[in-house]
Write a structure and sequence with these properties.
Length: 388
């Protein structure tokens, strides 16, 4: 098989890149380890910045998002039972879109299928070859048969545990990482959201988040210990604990119900530098991870893909290498800003083990955030994705 760009991974990064390239007449094949159903079964965050909304429109897959997504003008932060609002629209003129990542992935998959662009699912033993040479290759097995793709470039969009980053010699890569000493226990339920806007909760019992997927589907999270077992959290226990962390109004309004998904996720910050190695370009979670507190994961993947797709178009159409040469540097500039924001928001709102001093610092910083217009504006700009 021969293609111009071989894309490893059919998550949001790989699918969006494939769609943008396809629209520009650049041939690409996606190789994915799992089945499409498996990929769609993963529940992830659902807050999208305007830049990512525009990119999904450019990829021709934005119509359902505009019809079903919820535009949010602001967000709420609850500190020890008292709720505060940050008005994104008033402070920055921008809003965010709340639309599940699962739905985005589905829209991208449907868009790709409609265009007839190839995705090879259930491919295993995926391996990258000659990434420093002029003719890189991707090999894999499918249904027991070995296959090979020759290409001009490889886009490593295979997430944090993928093979792409691991194919680079360790001496050529620098990794920066922080693992947080807590996780998030998430619950999805077909119940109306407790509020029209997301509520980020900082309580002495630990962080909580009230989010949503639609007017009838809610997503809630509780900070939990990494040793926690999801089986020891029956729905009743989850709701009882959430209520303890909420303010009075939210506690009264909360509609509980049976969970349709429950899982525990660790929190991690991670960046690898650079994001390009010869003809291999990393994008999305393959190159960086943010803790979910700032809702930046998908947005960062989208911004990588924007830079990379433009650079590849420049290469094929304008015969210019400038975009490809600057890809890593440009992407990382944006990545580190989102890493800083996600780390800051995580440290500000979670219960940190054994640290009375840090707790006082959190409360002082939160008070400043709500009282100072410049501090609120900085928060709002970072959350909506401005300026980069
Ligand atoms: N070979 C082929 N495919 C692989 C391999 C491999 N060796 N390893 C992983 N994959 C696939 C995974 O099965 C997955 O479908 O790559 C895909 C990576 O998708 P994501 O993990 O969703 O990563 P990305 O597309 O960068 O996502 C960016 O979406 O899931 C979120 O937290 C993520 O918000 C971030 C955003
Ligand atoms: C979610 O809806 O899953 C969600 C929203 C905002 C976040 C993290 C997760 O910051």
């Amino acid at each position: 098989m021969r293609t111009q760009v071989a894309i490893i991974g059919a998550g949001p990064a790989g699918l969006l890149l494939g769609q943008l390239l396809h629209k520009q007449g650049i041939d690409n094949v996606i190789v994915e380890r799992h089945t499409g159903e498996y990929v769609l079964g993963r529940i992830r965050a659902g807050v999208i910045e305007q830049v990512a909304v525009d990119l999904l429109d450019e990829a021709g897959v934005g119509s359902r998002m505009h019809a079903e997504g919820l535009v949010h003008d602001g967000t709420q932060i609850c500190v020890e039972g008292v709720r505060h609002r940050v008005d994104f629209k008033a402070l920055t003129g921008k809003t965010v879109m709340v639309y599940g990542q699962t739905e985005i992935t589905k829209d991208l998959m449907d868009g790709r299928a409609a265009e007839g662009a190839p995705t090879i699912y259930s491919a295993y033993d995926v391996a990258l070859h000659d990434i420093q040479g002029a003719r890189p290759r991707v090999t894999f097995r499918k249904n027991g048969v070995g296959q090979e793709i020759e290409c001009d470039f490889i886009a490593g969009c295979d997430g944090f545990h993928g093979i792409s980053r691991k194919s680079v010699p360790p001496s050529a890569i620098a990794n920066y990482e922080r693992v947080y000493p807590f996780g998030w226990l998430g619950l999805l339920s077909d119940t109306p959201p407790v509020s029209d806007e997301l509520i980020y909760v900082r309580s002495s019992l630990g962080f909580a988040l009230c989010s949503m997927r639609s007017p009838t589907r809610s997503r809630y999270y509780l900070q939990c210990s990494l040793a926690e077992d999801v089986d020891s959290w029956p729905d009743e226990r989850f709701w009882d604990e959430l209520k303890l962390r909420l303010d009075d109004e939210a506690r009264e309004r909360l509609v509980t119900g049976a969970s349709i998904e429950k899982s525990i996720a660790p929190l991690r910050s991670f960046v690898c530098e650079p994001m390009r190695f010869g003809r291999l370009f990393l994008a999305g979670d393959a190159a960086h991870i943010v803790p979910p507190t700032g809702a930046k994961g998908l947005n960062l993947a989208a911004s990588d893909v924007q830079y990379l797709s433009r650079a590849l178009v420049e290469h094929y159409r304008d015969k210019s290498e400038a975009g490809l040469d600057h890809y890593s540097e440009r992407a990382l500039l944006r990545v580190w800003k989102a890493e800083r924001f996600s780390w800051w928001m995580t440290t500000l709102l979670h219960r940190l083990p054994d640290s009375d001093f840090e707790q006082k610092m959190q409360l002082a910083e939160l008070d400043y955030l709500f009282r100072s217009k410049s501090a609120s504006t900085a928060f709002a700009e970072n959350y909506v994705g401005l300026p980069y």
